[in-house]
Write a structure and sequence with these properties.
Blueprint lengths: L1 E7 L4 E20 L5 E19 L11 E11 L4 E12 L4 E12 L3 E9 L18 E8 L2 H24 L6
Length: about 180
């Protein structure tokens, strides 16, 4: 799910768009350091907008197709069992403007579940017809994000449930009563 807000104070334009999305996200990571406090890796993600709805002060303003694709290299440092910080650099494609760009993401991470921080994007590969008359510097953006990921709690639950099943089978095969 995605929510965007935009405005131009000179013209009085204001808009809000909501998107339901489905997609993929994958990481290839390797831990380093004496206590595995460093993570280096790469990510890839792609999203398809299933439904778009826009509220706008301009009549006839249409919702944008928010399909996207992105590839990033990352470095992450763990500061405690709960907190880490990640820097990601990479390229992305937005279908709504048919352009590739570069992005820098600075991310605070709490328990690998709550992620938040700033993101900076620019378009050095040229500008599509959607922005005729604009310069690349006009399109540079700075945004803030908040994300909730439930992968770790799901993996921990699955691991615990599987371990209990394995323990039960092992105890039965050894002829011992299962632990209570």
């Amino acid at each position: 799910w995605e929510k965007m807000n935009g405005h131009n104070d000179k013209s009085g334009y204001r808009m809000r768009q909501y998107n339901d999305k489905v997609g993929f996200y994958t990481e290839l990571i390797k831990q380093y350091g004496k206590n595995n406090e460093w993570v280096l890796g790469a990510t890839a993600e792609g999203w398809h907008a299933l439904h778009e709805r826009r509220e706008s002060t301009w009549s006839g303003d249409k919702a944008q197709n928010r399909d996207s694709l992105a590839f990033y290299l990352l470095a992450q440092r763990r500061f405690s069992p709960d907190w880490s910080a990640r820097l990601a650099l990479g390229t992305f494609y937005n279908r709504f403007d048919n352009m590739w760009g570069l992005r820098v993401i600075l991310e605070a991470r709490y328990k690998e579940m709550i992620m938040f921080g700033p993101s900076f994007a620019w378009y050095p590969f040229g500008i599509s017809d959607a922005y005729a008359g604009c310069s690349a510097s006009d399109l540079m953006t700075a945004t803030a994000f908040f994300r909730l990921e439930l992968g770790n709690p799901i993996r921990e639950f699955y691991q615990k449930s599987q371990m209990e099943r394995v323990k039960k089978v092992d105890m039965e095969e050894l002829g011992l009563a299962p632990e209570k």
